[in-house]
């Protein structure tokens, strides 16, 4: 088989990755941001003329090894916000500070291209794993079950807002308590005392 037949067009990869990792993450982090300002809405200086807050521009990435290399800075940023939200962490959980690049308040900026943190390396493995789960397994369920929901596995599917996925503890025999009632399988309530005989 020719290698090229295994590779979808680059554009499809970008869309799939961005959609799978960002939009379907179940995290709302990116949705309350102003939409990208179309070029027509910009004045000649390139500054956005309207919108709830000024658009920030994010530099193009220089060290992507797992995500498609042609993602824009904005796309990378949205994916990163979904990572942070899915794990309940801030950017510095995976990205190392640069002591030579200080903000006005004296704190170091993060060097996003730097690879010194192990959590960034683990995250790369996790990105590949998640892509493979969806491409090789989840996508096949649709064929067998046309009514299957078009769900994708995301970071949030396992992490649910935690750095480490929480251990799932199987409920004790009888299952979880019914809302507003005694737990299934619980002993019946003690018999009411007989009414006084008089
Ligand atoms: C769970 C770990 C994790 C968190 C949290 C995280 N990132 Fe990342 N980030 C990565 C990984 C992994 C890469 C590299 C992906 C690759 O190699 O394809 C990366 C790459 C980047 C890049 C591209 C750097 C370059 O030049 O190649 C930027 C910018 C970035 N992250 C910004 C952020 C921001 C901003 C936040 C917080 C909102 C954040 N990241 C949170 C793991 C994380
Ligand atoms: C199928 C479930 C699953 C998915 C999906 C998943 N993870 Fe994980 N992740 C795990 C498990 C399990 C561990 C703990 C592994 C271990 O014990 O070493 C983990 C650990 C991690 C860690 C290390 C945390 C620490 O404190 O050491 C990072 C970082 C991480 N995942 C990032 C991600 C990112 C980013 C995504 C989405 C691209 C993702 N994970 C998707 C299951 C998952």
Task: Please characterize this protein's 3D structure.
- The chain has 198 residues and is mostly helical.
- It has a domain at 9-34 and 57-159: Photosynthetic Reaction Center, subunit C, domain 2, CATH 1.10.468.
- The chain has helices spanning 10-21, 73-87, 118-144, 155-159, and strands at 97-102, 108-110.
- Strands 1-2 form a two-stranded antiparallel ribbon.
- It starts with 9 loop residues before the first helix and ends in a 39-residue tail after the last helix.
- Mean pLDDT is 75; it is low at 1-49.
- Bound molecules: heme C (2 copies).
Keywords:
30% helix; two-stranded antiparallel ribbon; binds heme C; 198 residues; 4 helices; mainly alpha; 2 strands; Photosynthetic Reaction Center, subunit C, domain 2; disordered N terminus
Any chance you could write out the topology, listing elements then pairs?
Blueprint (H helix, E strand, L loop, with lengths): L9 H12 L51 H15 L9 E6 L5 E3 L7 H27 L10 H5 L39
Antiparallel strand pairs: 1-2
Summarize the structure.
With 198 residues, this protein is mainly alpha-helical. It is 30% helix and 5% strand. The chain has a domain of 129 residues: Photosynthetic Reaction Center, subunit C, domain 2 (Orthogonal Bundle).
* Largest beta-sheet characterization: 2 strands, antiparallel
Principal-axes geometry comes out as: extended
Classification by helices and strands? mainly alpha
Chain-averaged pLDDT: 75
* C-alpha Rg (nearest Å): 25 Å
Architecture per CATH nomenclature, i.e. the level-2 architecture of the domain at 9-34 and 57-159: Orthogonal Bundle
The proportion of residues forming helix, as a percent range, comes to 25-40%
User: Remind me, CATH topology of the domain at 9-34 and 57-159?
Assistant: Photosynthetic Reaction Center, subunit C, domain 2
Beta-strand residue fraction:
under 5%
Quaternary arrangement of the chains shown?
single chain
CATH class of the domain at 9-34 and 57-159: Mainly Alpha
Bound molecules: heme C
Q: Give, in order, the helices and strands.
A: HHEEHH
Q: Distance N terminus to C terminus?
A: 93 Å
Q: Low-confidence parts lasting 5 or more residues at pLDDT below 50?
A: 1-49
> Could you give the count of β-strands?
2
């Amino acid at each position: 088989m020719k290698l090229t037949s295994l590779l979808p067009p680059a554009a499809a990869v970008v869309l799939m990755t961005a959609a799978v990792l960002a939009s379907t993450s179940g995290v709302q982090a990116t949705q309350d941001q102003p939409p990208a300002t179309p070029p027509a809405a910009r004045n000649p200086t390139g500054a956005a003329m309207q919108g709830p807050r000024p658009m920030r521009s994010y530099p193009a990435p220089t060290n992507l090894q797992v995500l498609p290399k042609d993602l824009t800075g904005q796309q990378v940023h949205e994916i990163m916000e979904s990572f942070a939200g899915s794990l309940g962490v801030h950017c510095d959980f995976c990205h190392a500070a640069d002591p030579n690049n200080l903000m006005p308040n004296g704190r170091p900026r993060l060097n996003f291209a730097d690879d010194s943190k192990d959590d960034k390396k683990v995250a790369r493995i996790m990105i590949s794993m998640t892509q493979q789960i969806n491409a090789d397994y989840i996508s096949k369920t649709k064929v067998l079950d046309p009514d299957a929901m078009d769900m994708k596995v995301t970071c949030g599917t396992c992490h649910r807002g935690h750095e480490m996925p929480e251990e799932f503890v199987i409920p004790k025999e009888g299952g979880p308590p019914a809302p507003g009632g005694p737990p299934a399988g619980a002993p019946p309530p003690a018999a009411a005392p007989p009414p006084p005989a008089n």
